[in-house]
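Handoff note, outgoing to incoming analyst
You'll be picking up this chain. Sequence as last confirmed:
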Amino acid sequence: MSNVFLALAGLASFLVAGDPRPSEAVPAPVEISPSAAAARVAEWVAASGDNRALPYIIVDKPNASLLLFDAKGKALGQVPVLIGVAVGDDASPGIGSKNLAEIGPAEKTTPAGRFLAKYGLAAGKEKVLWVDYATSVALHPIPKGASAKERRRQRMLSPASDDNRITFGCINVPVAFYSKAVRPLFRKKGGYVYVLPDTKPLEVVFPRLRVQALANGT
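Most recent structure output, in case you need it:
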């Protein structure tokens, strides 16, 4: 499976470069290599069938990247993402009921965990892929109304991953990747999103991963 992952960087670059934003000056597309943690989770999901015959996504927060798989575990692409400003793995209590203006910097976290994601309406009657509706975390392209000062597209394409922390907690993905790859897979029945942790051990966030490791004697 690691050989398949290594082949994804070219696809990711194509999809990011293909975003229709000709008015913006952007750097060359960044190439991505999957982390050991992302590869480990991907192998566990594929081997155990934890995705329950649904497509799934692995969000690697430390590397600010996303891996997409179909229902059978075939790797379809990898792209950079934008995530919450704050480092952390838990959503603040009551965050889902707050207005954006009420959310402090320390609360802008993309929570780690395993989520059953489904499409639903957001503000403005636009459909988004809700990762965790209760905490208002969704996966969608960079909002059209995003401030130019935030330089979200430039951050997404930069070689570094630390500047990809800019959102209130939502996961921003390239427009072309979202429309051509994510939406066709998830729009009917949804799928699973596995968000890797910033600080917690993988086994704490994904207990079933620990169970499999023990069963394999590792």
